[in-house]
UniProtKB/TrEMBL annotation, chain A:
<comment type="similarity">
    <text>Belongs to the YIP1 family.</text>
</comment>
<feature type="transmembrane region" description="Helical">
    <location>
        <begin position="252"/>
        <end position="276"/>
    </location>
</feature>
<dbReference type="GO" id="GO:0000139">
    <property type="term" value="C:Golgi membrane"/>
</dbReference>
<keyword id="KW-0333">Golgi apparatus</keyword>
<dbReference type="Pfam" id="PF04893">
    <property type="entry name" value="Yip1"/>
</dbReference>
<dbReference type="GO" id="GO:0016192">
    <property type="term" value="P:vesicle-mediated transport"/>
</dbReference>
<feature type="domain" description="Yip1">
    <location>
        <begin position="97"/>
        <end position="269"/>
    </location>
</feature>
<keyword id="KW-1133">Transmembrane helix</keyword>
<dbReference type="GO" id="GO:0031902">
    <property type="term" value="C:late endosome membrane"/>
</dbReference>
From TrEMBL, chain B:
<feature type="domain" description="Yip1">
    <location>
        <begin position="76"/>
        <end position="229"/>
    </location>
</feature>
<keyword id="KW-0812">Transmembrane</keyword>
<comment type="similarity">
    <text>Belongs to the YIP1 family.</text>
</comment>
<feature type="transmembrane region" description="Helical">
    <location>
        <begin position="153"/>
        <end position="175"/>
    </location>
</feature>
<keyword id="KW-0333">Golgi apparatus</keyword>
<keyword id="KW-1133">Transmembrane helix</keyword>
<protein>
    <recommendedName>
        <fullName>Protein YIPF</fullName>
    </recommendedName>
</protein>
<dbReference type="Pfam" id="PF04893">
    <property type="entry name" value="Yip1"/>
</dbReference>
<feature type="transmembrane region" description="Helical">
    <location>
        <begin position="89"/>
        <end position="108"/>
    </location>
</feature>
Length: 310, 235
């Protein structure tokens, strides 16, 4: 009957004792294969934290006994982070686009299998889309007002790439480090691994991709509206995911952490909007050679270039 | 051998004797001739191996490589499911295409503006690091294509976009205007679709169907960025 007990669903009392015994059962890490890996979340009322009991103990134990964990300098180690299908990636993107309370992205969608495909390629897409649409707004502005000088502005690709990648990888690192430091004082906090934090941030940036494309519409208040909407969705997803981890800490620390997370996200959105889509007329004045009458041969072609559209 | 035959004949007609009983009567060195020559009688191949490629003329070497590159260009321009690019991969074609594209995309920097088009190094880096990243992504997703085969395919499929760049430069010689832009947009879009279709024709079979889209999307992004660089080029 002992074997049947292991395979059967556990009742809540057993679940709480199990959680107390193995405080790190909620996270995946490369521990011993033989520690039980029941993954249990206990609900406290009808608020945040969905009551779900997942019994993955024997399955993961079997898998771990079969093959040894690959070391971090082998290719197989990184291959385990790309073990996703198309449908899973699309499902995770959908889950980050529509957050709601009690809907923990990490538990519902990642299910302890974080991937690196989503964060990496969503950041790449966002960086390129930012640069391309920023350039497109310049083109459209020049059609309306031909005194603006058009240039491909290729350096913006570099700036966009560095900003987005630094945000999506360094901020989760800082957050993860801070949460681990706070865990030192309390034993019963469920923690996310570094990769799960990176996943949360990476997938939360996915809502900005359609927003940036919609920012092409040259109506100012509409751009601010879309930006606010995207920021609200994205920040809400982050907050709902981080709340179960942070609520066990003191109120002050929890409130400060969540507000810093939302603030950084807002700064990113604002910075992107202002740098890539800023209104142009005063910056791109027709360059100096135009003004000097010393080189008449250069004068007509440059004026022709700036007057006509692309 | 005569004795062996006799003994086997005896085996059949006479009363049953144990098998192979007569073999002990045979002595190897005298009865079974095992002399002969152990050379491979293939005169033709020996003649070929003598003439290694070190002794051939330089023109012959270059023409052989150029013909291989040209054959692969034909396979890119008329994409069908074949594995010519995969079987004998080479990186000469991608290098020629990348250098041509980067030279054509380079702005003359007459104006001395800071925010201009991409420099030679930027185009080079985007093409090669983009191809390496897509290849790594493909391998991490579990694709069964080798590293250099994938680089070869991605590099060769830039050919339609290089042709588009040539056409755009020619069209831009006629001056700028909205019709001019429409023609260039049309040409670049057609060549972009051609590049993506050509590369997926070669790379499609190396992934299981539930991950094909994950492997193809970065290729789409890569060629989209190159098309964007071509479209926004202003002389």
């Amino acid at each position: 009957m002992a074997a049947a007990d292991v395979l059967a669903f556990h009742e809540f009392e057993e679940a709480t004792t199990l959680l107390a015994e193995t405080p790190d059962a909620a996270t995946t890490s490369q521990r011993d294969a033989l520690t039980s890996r029941e993954h249990v979340a206990v609900a406290v009322g009808s608020g945040y934290g969905a009551p779900e009991v997942e019994d993955e103990g024997d399955k993961t134990a079997l898998l771990q006994e079969e093959k040894p964990q690959p070391r971090f300098w082998t290719f197989d180690y990184y291959q385990s982070f790309f073990d996703v299908d198309t449908s899973q990636v699309l499902d995770r993107i959908k889950g980050s686009l529509l957050p709601h309370p009690g809907y923990n992205f990490v538990r519902h969608h990642l299910r302890n299998r974080p991937d690196l495909y989503g964060p990496f390629w969503i950041c790449a897409t966002l960086a390129f889309v930012l640069a391309v649409t920023g350039n497109l707004t310049l083109v459209l502005a020049q059609r309306r007002d031909s005194s603006i000088h058009y240039s491909p502005q290729f350096h913006k690709v570099t700036v966009a790439g560095i900003t987005i990648y630094c945000y999506a990888w360094l901020v989760p690192l800082a957050l993860w480090g801070f949460l681990r430091w706070r865990q030192g004082t309390r034993e019963h906090m469920e923690l996310y691994t570094f990769l799960e934090t990176v996943c949360v941030y990476g997938y939360s940036l996915s809502v900005f991709v359609p927003t940036v494309i919609l920012w092409l519409i040259p109506v100012e208040w509409l751009q601010w509206l879309f930006g606010a909407l995207a920021l609200a969705l994205s920040a809400a997803g982050l907050v709902f995911t981080l709340w179960p981890v942070v609520r066990e800490d003191t109120r002050l620390v929890a409130a400060a952490l969540l507000s810093i997370v939302v603030l950084l996200h807002a700064l990113l959105a604002l910075g992107c909007k202002l740098y890539f889509f800023q209104p142009l007329p005063l910056e791109h004045v027709i360059p100096a050679p135009q003004a000097t009458p010393l080189s008449p041969s250069i004068l007509p072609p440059t004026s022709a270039r700036s007057m006509t559209t692309l | 051998m005569a004795e062996a035959e006799e003994s086997s004949g005896e085996l059949e007609t006479a009363t049953p004797r144990p098998l192979f009983a007569g073999l002990s009567d045979i002595s190897i060195s005298q009865d079974i001739p095992i002399e002969g020559e152990i050379t491979i009688p293939m005169q033709g191949r020996a003649r070929e191996l003598d003439r290694s490629t070190l002794n051939e003329s330089v023109r012959h070497t270059i023409m052989r490589d150029l013909k291989a590159v040209g054959k692969k260009f034909m396979h890119v321009l008329y994409p069908r499911r074949s594995n010519v690019l995969l079987r004998d991969w080479d990186l000469w074609g991608p290098l020629i295409l990348c250098v041509t594209l980067a030279l054509m995309l380079q702005k003359g920097s007459v104006d001395g503006e800071k925010d201009g088009g991409p420099q030679f190094a930027e185009v080079f880096v985007i093409v090669w690091f983009g191809a390496v990243t897509i290849t790594l992504n493909s391998k991490l997703l579990g694709g069964n294509i080798s590293f250099f085969q994938s680089l070869c395919v991605l590099g060769y499929c830039i050919l339609p976009l290089t042709v588009a760049m040539l056409i755009c430069r020619l069209v831009l010689l006629a001056g700028q205007g909205p019709i001019n832009f429409m023609i260039r947009l049309f040409v670049v879009v057609v060549m972009f679709i051609w590049s993506v279709v050509a590369s997926t024709a070669f790379l499609a079979d190396s992934h299981p169907p539930n991950r094909k889209a994950l492997a193809v999307y970065p290729v789409f992004l890569f060629y989209f960025v190159i098309s964007w660089m071509i479209l926004t080029f202003t002389p």
